[in-house]
Specification:
heterodimer; A: 163 residues; alpha+beta; 5-stranded mixed beta sheet; 5 helices; 37% helix; globular; B: 787 residues; 19 helices; 28% helix
Chain lengths: 163, 787
């Protein structure tokens, strides 16, 4: 067993874990943050995407011990019922989810796309950038619209804040 | 009219928990004292089990139990079942081989379940599973559908000579033969309908516990129909009587058919929970999903159409071999029979149809219903046939279809179904307009100028959903009914709980079903909660499959509301001191006719419970009603999808340039959600047609058993979709709705292959039309053109 300490959604947390424990397992099994989902064994589906030190990471492919001291954000840290993040709101507004299983990973990836590509995103960019996230329900049509709308809303709220 | 009523694109209430990570899927459930199960699966497609040695595994750290089929058998746990009896044309019942929950003597596919290892942690269970020594004697395997019935091939089940489950037929062969003899033109095609792996993004999972005090079990499972799971596990497998087995299907992350079935893992976990005296949890990994979730499709078909000189279809003859894999999964037998052949008439007035189906065993994963289940296979047959017939006869494919459309309803086809309503020409006209069909020639020229091949393809599909009525399907061999149940519990202050036997795993019932209540009772949806997926809460239900939840599930809710309104009207009449027939109810208000007295729905609910204003000998206190709705017929959604593609002949890369869908689902409860269902269905149909290939090697090893190898559609593989609607109400249910969940997956493959073949100029390409397949087909065309 080994000790790990990190910051998750703004809180310092620690756990005694087997060295082979994945970040996804630490979040789900030790910290009870079950919004991060496991959909495959090969880093393909993206249901487990979280942010580590601000960047999107597939948490099923990251050893928890390698996150010692890191700042991790999961879907639970993005926005809560009654206080949704604009990207979460855009997913509801655009019917960008059906079963909801891929949704947390989609939203975490969408936020990373905005970080890298800005708030004005065209369809081709969004489709290309969503390469690492699989959805079997929506055909992506509404996810693409939601990411564009969410990005725009994030830009608008930044603008408002600046004014 | 309510703002949150029928026909409004109300935002989904269930979304809040999913977008904030607070959904509760089976893998999110952990019980105190829980242990983990891992299954040891066969690495061979076909082998005898000589011996199973569990000693090392049992002694491994953390292990609390290692069990084989002998242990399960000692507790008299029964086998998995197939719930639809099909009879062969000679009258004999289908030949079903034994399907054990843990194999004891023989394994028949890679992934077959042999041993369960249960340990304190998942990793310990995995480690110990590696230590189980199964001594296999490998046997030759039969892997390909085309080989299964060939003499001398390995035999899977003693019960089924020549690996043949049944040889079934439907229709009038003599009438078809006569029509073919007089035909002016015949079109014959051979098809592969490729095997698909459903791949809901949530893997299957189960958490089971046993309460020694009450002697009852609770099973949390990723199911589309928890009541059917409970029924089968009780009545056939013998885990526990129904009243001692609670099955809960919480949030379920997609199903597409694959979570209808009753699988070995949930049975074994439930049994083992009592055996080890601890809650037992199992979560499939993706590789296991590929191996052990029931697959879909896998047909080989030879089909021929006979036409008169004007292109009127006179008859169809269809011969299909269907691969059911190594065992009969829960509803597998119905898929290539009653969910397939009755759809072959499509949207067309065809006087004679004859279809023969041989279903066979092979050493592959069992095959069962997957989004559309038989109907996509049928649509592909008829829509490829009419397209190619039109091309051969020099008739525009849209015009060819128009000439053959059914125009009068009800319409009795020669293959069982009586279509109740439709307007096929209206759909076609709108689809052609939306696709700018008349502008295609110019676009094709523009593509040609760039060295690209452009093609357009149509698919005018029909679907049949909401399998019913129960009496009729019982005669066809169904082991279950086709009804759905609903209960409306009006609370004292007028809020409402709806209990439904339907199950949502992405369909948005918590919103749409609440909209039905909102509309009928005149209350906002915030006052309505939809409860589903728990056999302790909902008395009985058939679950969600075959696009039945709108036409059957929501209709049951409608009927239960009828009863609520009748009773509430009586209560209101007593309160307002007028006769029962002196009260009207509209928009949530009860009005005493000829007076200015009114009562809100909530006020009447309160009076129903305080029971101060009526005689309990005449009216029982309370306000709670239920209904079982058994529709008089299937619903028959239909539509036209038009795909337009551009192919780079140098690379075989196919780009979908336009997708124009016009569907007729009758009345819509929530147009936004219906469109979403079309999007998802089309994506899966595009996946089948262009991307998804399930490959077994000659030894029966599944080569495409991960997302690295199996090409699930990604965002960049798909275009934006233009979805339109026509609305011909369905007369077979009170809401006038038709099922919409499978339509896209039914329509899309033929539209796309018709477009690709139109682009490359010949018909010689199978699904999936991958870049390599398209490149090869395009090169062949160029070679032919050069010669």
């Amino acid at each position: 067993m080994a000790a790990v300490s990190l910051t998750v959604n703004g809180k310092t947390v620690g756990a005694e874990i087997e060295p082979r424990t994945l970040l996804s397992a630490l979040l789900r099994d030790h910290l009870n943050l079950t919004g991060t989902h496991i959909g495959c064994d090969t880093s393909q589906c993206g249901a487990c995407v979280v942010h580590v030190n601000g960047k999107a990471v597939k948490s099923c492919t990251r050893l928890a011990l390698s996150c010692e001291g890191a700042k991790v954000t999961t879907i639970e840290g993005v926005g809560r019922p009654g206080n949704l993040h604009p990207m979460q709101q855009a997913f509801q507004d655009n019917h960008a989810l059906q079963c909801g299983f891929c949704t947390p990973g989609m939203i975490m990836s969408a936020l990373d796309i905005v970080r890298r590509k800005g708030t004005r995103l065209d369809e081709a960019t969004i489709r290309k950038e969503l390469e690492g996230n699989l959805c079997r329900c929506t055909g992506y049509h509404n996810i693409v619209r939601a990411v564009a709308a969410g990005a725009q809303a994030m830009g608008d709220s930044k603008l408002q804040a600046a004014e | 009219m309510s703002d949150t009523g029928i026909g409004k694109s109300v935002k989904r209430t269930e979304d809040i928990r999913f977008i904030t990570g607070t959904g509760r899927y089976t893998d999110d459930i952990n019980r105190p004292g829980q242990v983990w199960a891992v299954f040891v699966r066969s690495p061979h497609a076909h082998a005898k089990i000589r011996n199973i040695d569990i000693r090392r595994a049992s002694a491994a750290p953390g292990v609390v139990g290692v069990f084989t089929g002998k242990d399960v058998g000692a507790d008299k746990i029964g086998n998995l079942i197939c719930g639809w009896m099909i009879h062969s044309k000679d009258g004999s019942p289908m030949k079903a081989g034994v399907h054990s929950v843990l194999a004891t003597e023989r394994v028949r596919y890679v992934g077959d379940h042999v041993v369960v290892v249960i340990a304190e942690s998942k990793n310990q269970a995995r480690d110990a599973a590696e230590l189980v020594e199964v001594d296999y004697e490998p046997l030759p395997a039969v892997v390909r559908l085309a080989d299964a019935q060939t003499r001398g091939q390995p035999q899977l089940h003693d019960e089924a000579p020549n690996n043949t489950v049944y040889q079934w037929h439907l229709g009038d062969k003599a009438a078809v033969d006569a029509a073919f003899a007089s035909a002016a033109h015949r079109t014959k095609l051979e098809f592969v309908n490729n095997r698909l792996v459903p791949n809901a993004i949530e893997p299957r999972a189960a958490v089971a516990e046993y309460d020694t005090g009450t002697g009852s079990y609770t099973l949390y499972t990723t199911s589309q129909n928890p009541h059917v799971t409970r029924l089968v596990m009780s009545a056939f497998i013998g885990i526990a009587p129904e009243n001692k087995l609670r099955v809960i299907a919480p949030d379920v992350g997609g199903g597409f058919g694959s979570k209808i079935f009753i699988y070995a893992e949930e049975v074994v976990c439930t049994w083992a929970a009592r055996k080890v005296g601890r809650p037992v949890k199992w979560v499939s990994d993706r590789n296991e999903s590929f191996l052990a979730d029931a697959h879909g499709r896998d047909h080989l078909t030879i089909a021929e159409a006979a036409m008169d000189a004007e292109g009127k279809v006179l008859a169809l003859h269809v011969r299909t071999k269907a691969n059911l894999g190594a065992y009969l999964s829960t509803f597998s037998s119905a898929v290539p029979t009653y969910l397939y052949a009755p759809l072959l008439s499509g949207q067309y007035d065809i006087p004679a149809i004859y279809c023969e189906v041989d279903a066979v065993y092979t050493n592959t994963t069992p095959v069962d219903a997957y989004r559309g289940a038989g109907r996509p296979e049928a649509a592909f047959v008829i829509e490829r046939l009419v397209e190619v017939a039109a091309r051969e006869m020099g008739i525009d494919p849209a015009e060819f279809r128009m000439r053959n459309f059914i125009r009068k309803f009800p319409h009795q086809t020669p293959v069982l179904f009586a279509y109740d309503a439709g307007n096929y020409p209206a759909c076609m006209k709108l689809a052609l307009e939306n696709a700018d069909y008349s502008g295609f020639a110019a676009r094709k020229q523009a593509s040609a100028a760039k060295g690209k091949l452009r093609g357009i393809g149509l698919s005018a599909y029909i679907e049949a959903c909401g399998i019913a009525p129960s009496q009729a399907i019982g005669q066809l061999g169904a082991g279950v009914g086709g009804w759905e149940s609903a209960e409306i519990r009006v609370n004292v202050t007028g809020t409402v709980e709806v209990l439904t036997g339907s199950h949502a795993h992405g369909q948005g019932h918590e919103t749409t079903f609440a909209q039905v209540v909102s509309e009928r009772l005149g209350i906002p949806i915030e006052q309505v909660t939809v409860i589903h997926g728990d056999t302790d809460k909902v008395q009985m239900g058939m679950g969600t499959y075959g696009s039945r939840s709108g036409p059957v599930g929501a209709s049951a809710i409608y009927r239960a509301i009828d009863k609520v309104i009748v009773k509430a009207t009586k209560v209101a009449a007593r309160c307002m001191e007028v006769p029962d027939d002196g009260v009207e109810f509209a928009d949530g208000i009860f009005s005493a006719r000829g007076t200015n007295r009114t009562m809100k729905f909530g006020e009447v609910a309160l009076q129903a419970y305080v029971a101060h204003k009526f005689n309990p000998a005449e009216i029982e206190p309370g306000l709670k009603e239920s209904a079982f709705f058994d529709p008089p017929n299937f619903t028959f959604p239909s539509g036209v999808h038009i795909a337009e593609v551009e192919i780079d002949p140098e690379t075989g890369k196919t780009r979908i340039e336009r997708w124009s869908a016009v569907d007729d689902f009758g009345n819509l409860i929530n147009p936004m959600i219906v469109e979403g269902q079309v999007h998802g269905g089309v994506a899966q149909g595009v996946g089948q047609a262009m991307l998804e290939n399930t490959v077994y090697d000659d030894n029966g090893q599944l080569l495409t058993a991960s997302f690295m190898d199996y090409c699930l559609p990604r965002a960049s593989d798909l275009p934006s979709l233009n979805v339109g609607m026509t609305n011909t109400p369905c007369p077979s249910n009170p809401l006038g709705v038709k099922g919409c969940g499978e339509a896209g997956a039914i329509a899309a493959p033929a539209a796309l292959i018709n477009a690709i073949t139109n682009a490359i100029g010949h018909e010689d390409i199978d699904m999936p039309a991958t870049p390599f397949a398209v490149w090869r087909a395009a090169q062949q065309h160029e070679k032919q053109a050069a010669e």
